[in-house]
Write a structure and sequence with these properties.
With 471 residues, the protein is of the alpha/beta class. The protein contains 15 helices and 15 strands. The protein folds into 2 domains: 1-30; 40-469, TIM Barrel. The strands form 4 sheets. An 8-stranded parallel beta barrel has the order 1-2-3-4-5-9-12-13, surrounded by 5 helices. Strands 6-10-11 form a 3-stranded mixed β-sheet. The structure holds beta-D-fucopyranose (FCB). Beta-D-fucopyranose (FCB) is lined by residues 59, 62, 206-207, 210, 265, 330, 387, 425, 432-433, 441.
Length: 471
């Protein structure tokens, strides 16, 4: 009797252990968590194609300064119900880097640095400050920027939408309403026709999922909503805006030759403990909506946003298939999730103990960069690394970051991935959205009162890699 009950307990225990371990093994195989031994890797051994684009990236609102026409300007003076400002410490973008006026000087420092491409965004709210009214001077400004870049041997890459909306568009409900997509497409047509003779690389929307998560799920960015059902709708509409903008450009003169792509932030949602199936369930749920929904839509035309008990939206648009001539990959790091019955807690990311911290709420994770390249390579179109960089106010981790992340790019190219260019985020320290000026991503720092740019020590490795790659 005793031995029978012992056997019974043993069987139950084995079944439970297997039910715990087997899903973890299956999950680990489906999404392998890469980890390399960096002490065995010589990050100095890197090679890049001769025609590689070496770039840096900015976004209009973060650098231009003095823009009062978009929803971020309003957001910066908003306070929440507890009297707390929306931006850390009540900061505002204000004059930012004064890039609107100082772009000639900024182009010079890019040129001196050895860069041969610059990704920047055109500010819709300056170009169309009122619905249907286009500002020819603002358009002229961006033509001048492109002319100056080209004269300096720097290829412009233009982003049409980088988080900001004109106030009139925001007031109409922005991408919450399907019928508003037409406004974005009309803007796309105007600015495409104005710049098409100067620009061949176009990014439609920057990080659709980040725009949606920050604005409609966490509420940290405007419009500061926390509504998962609405988030599902906005993501569908903003992806649809990409599809329509893509085909609009293709229908216009020169559109066939233009290279048009979407920019995808590929932060992976990983389990905090890869041997905990609960952590996997949460990680996979978040991975599914943050990355899976967008990638799947672009691959198959099937839009599927499902968060059990919270939101479900399923639709189809076959025109999404083939709507990218390239994919822009923004990569910084991954987030790690722990299971919890408390949803607020479960959606909070955690740092792994052995990773190098950045000043953002994530660590440095170069192996994740390799994973992300592999994931987006499935589209079979060229890849541009449209953003990658580190917030490092002390500038004591930037050099290591550049060594490791560019080693990843070099290895990925050697392994056959079709990567055409790399844009370091960012040219200079700038207004990091809800975190204000505290996050220092720049290759250059800025002495704000005098607007003087100075090259950071940690950035010099990037410059050296560029020089070496051309030898
Ligand atoms: C990306 C944004 C960019 C900048 C970097 C740090 O998500 O596209 O504007 O804020 O993060």
């Amino acid at each position: 009797m005793k031995s029978k009950s012992r056997l019974f307990i043993l069987i139950i225990a084995s079944v439970l252990i297997l039910a715990w371990i087997i899903p973890c093994i299956i999950f680990q195989n489906s999404r392998p968590q890469l980890k390399w031994d960096w002490s065995k890797i010589d990050t100095k051994k890197v090679t890049f194609p001769k025609d590689f684009l070496w770039g840096t990236a900015t976004a209009a609102h973060q650098v231009e300064g003095n823009n009062t026409n978009n929803q971020w300007y309003l957001w910066e003076s908003t306070i929440d119900a507890n009297g707390k400002p929306m931006i850390a410490g009540g900061q505002r973008a204000g004059l930012a880097c004064d890039h609107w006026r100082r772009y000639p000087q900024d182009i010079r420092i890019m040129q001196d640095f050895g860069l041969n491409s610059y990704r920047f965004s055109v500010e819709w709210s300056r170009i169309e400050p009122q619905e249907g009214v286009f500002d020819t001077l603002a358009i002229r400004h961006y033509q001048d920027v492109c002319d100056s870049l080209i004269a300096a041997g720097i290829i412009p890459m233009v982003t049409l939408h980088h988080f900001t909306n004109p106030i009139w568009f925001e007031k109409k409900g922005a991408f919450e309403k399907k019928e508003n997509i037409a406004d974005f497409v009309r803007f796309t047509e105007v600015i495409y026709l104005a710049l098409k003779d100067r620009v061949s690389l176009w990014c439609t929307i920057n990080e659709p999922a980040v725009y949606v998560v920050a604005g409609y799920f966490q509420g940290a960015n405007p419009p500061g909503k926390k509504d998962t059902k609405l988030a599902a709708i906005v993501l569908r509409n903003i992806l649809e805006a990409h599809v329509q903008a893509y085909w609009k450009i293709k229908s216009l003169p020169g559109g066939e030759q233009a290279k048009v792509g979407l920019v995808k932030n590929m932060t992976q949602a990983d389990p905090y403990n890869k041997w905990n199936p609960g952590d996997w369930i949460f990680a996979n749920l978040i991975e599914g909506v943050f990355n899976g929904t967008t990638l799947n839509f672009l691959k198959t035309g099937k839009y599927r946003f499902v968060m059990p008990t919270m939101a479900k939206l399923i639709e189809e648009n076959p025109k999404a298939v083939g709507s990218m001539d390239f994919i822009g990959l923004n990569y910084y790091s991954h987030y790690n999730y722990k299971f919890s019955f408390n949803l607020d807690k479960a959606f909070q990311a955690h740092l792994l103990p052995d990773e190098i911290k950045t000043d953002m709420d994530y660590a440095s994770y170069p192996e994740g960069f390799y994973r992300a390249i592999k994931t987006v390579s499935e589209f079979g179109v060229p890849i541009y690394i449209t953003e990658n960089g580190i917030a490092d106010a002390k500038d004591d981790r930037r050099e290591l970051f550049i060594n490791q992340y560019l080693y990843v790019v070099s290895k990925a190219i050697a392994d056959g991935y079709n990567i055409k260019g790399y844009y370091y985020w960012s040219l200079m320290d700038n207004f990091e959205w809800s975190l204000g000026y505290d996050m220092k991503f720049g290759l250059f720092g800025i002495d704000m009162p005098t607007q003087t740019r100075y090259l950071k020590k940690g950035a010099q490795r990037y410059r050296d890699i560029i020089i070496e790659s051309r030898k």
